């Protein structure tokens, strides 16, 4: 069993990882960098559509924990680029469904390859075996932490 001190250190490192991820997602969208036509902020939309299939804008916004207006703008840019298509939802013609195009799937593949190359370059001093141990440890950690209840928001007293 680990000590509460070690658990506190782990929480601090996890907070840093989340902050790093958040900073990457919130960077200005501008022009996509690298060889792919996808900005990292748009990649989340493509990943969800690739993994979960066609869905409404509201579901995308909820899954990505972003305001619907932000998702709407991202989808508009992706649609203009031919990476996604929208169509009326047959269950509710007021709503729209968004789907990944073949071009979108290819752009996502390119984006993932480019990101893997960037991470590999950043970790060039490490050995594959060491990183594989880290990956296995992180997967186990995620499994263990999935049993921890979500933190409760406290109501201020007074």
* Total beta-strand segments: 3
Placed side by side, the strands forming the largest sheet appear as: 1-3-2
Helix/strand class: mainly alpha
Number of domains: 1
Named CATH topology: Arc Repressor Mutant, subunit A
Largest sheet: 3 strands, antiparallel
CATH class label? Mainly Alpha
Overall geometry: globular
Structure, explained:
- The protein is mostly helical.
- The chain has a single domain, classed as Arc Repressor Mutant, subunit A.
- The protein has helices spanning 4-26, 40-52, 57-64, 68-80, 102-122, 128-145; strands spanning 55-56, 84-89, 92-100.
- The protein has a three-stranded antiparallel beta sheet.
- The two termini are 38 Å apart.
- Residues 10-143 form the HTH marR-type domain.
- It holds the Pfam family MarR.
What are the SSEs and their pairings?
Layout: H1 4-26, H2 40-52, E1 55-56, H3 57-64, H4 68-80, E2 84-89, E3 92-100, H5 102-122, H6 128-145
Antiparallel strand pairs: 1-3, 2-3
Domain HTH marR-type: 10-143
InterPro entries: HTH-type_Bedaq_tolerance, HTH_MarR-typ, Tscrpt_reg_MarR-type_CS, WH-like_DNA-bd_sf, WH_DNA-bd_sf
Keywords: DNA-binding, Transcription, Transcription regulation
Give me a quick take on this structure.
With 158 residues, the protein is mainly α. The protein has helices at residues 4-26, 40-52, 57-64, 68-80, 102-122, 128-145, and strands at 55-56, 84-89, 92-100.
Q: What keyword list fits this structure?
A:
158 residues; Arc Repressor Mutant, subunit A; three-stranded antiparallel beta sheet; 61% helix; globular; Transcriptional regulator, MarR family; transcription; WH-like_DNA-bd_sf; DNA-binding transcription factor activity; DNA binding
């Amino acid at each position: 069993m680990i000590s509460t001190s070690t658990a506190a250190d782990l929480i601090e490192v996890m907070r840093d990882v989340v902050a790093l991820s958040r900073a990457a997602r919130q960077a200005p969208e501008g022009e996509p960098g690298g060889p792919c036509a996808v900005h990292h902020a748009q990649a989340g939309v493509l990943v969800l559509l690739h993994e979960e299939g066609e869905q409404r804008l509201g579901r995308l916004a909820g899954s990505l924990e972003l305001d619907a207006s932000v998702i709407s703008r991202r989808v508009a840019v992706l649609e203009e680029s031919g990476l996604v298509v929208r169509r009326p939802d047959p269950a509710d013609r007021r709503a729209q469904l968004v789907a990944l195009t073949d071009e979108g799937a290819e752009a996502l593949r390119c984006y993932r390859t480019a990101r893997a190359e960037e991470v590999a370059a950043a970790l060039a001093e490490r050995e594959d075996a060491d990183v594989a141990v880290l990956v296995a440890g992180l997967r186990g950690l995620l499994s263990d932490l999935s049993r921890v209840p979500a933190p409760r928001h406290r109501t201020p007293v007074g």
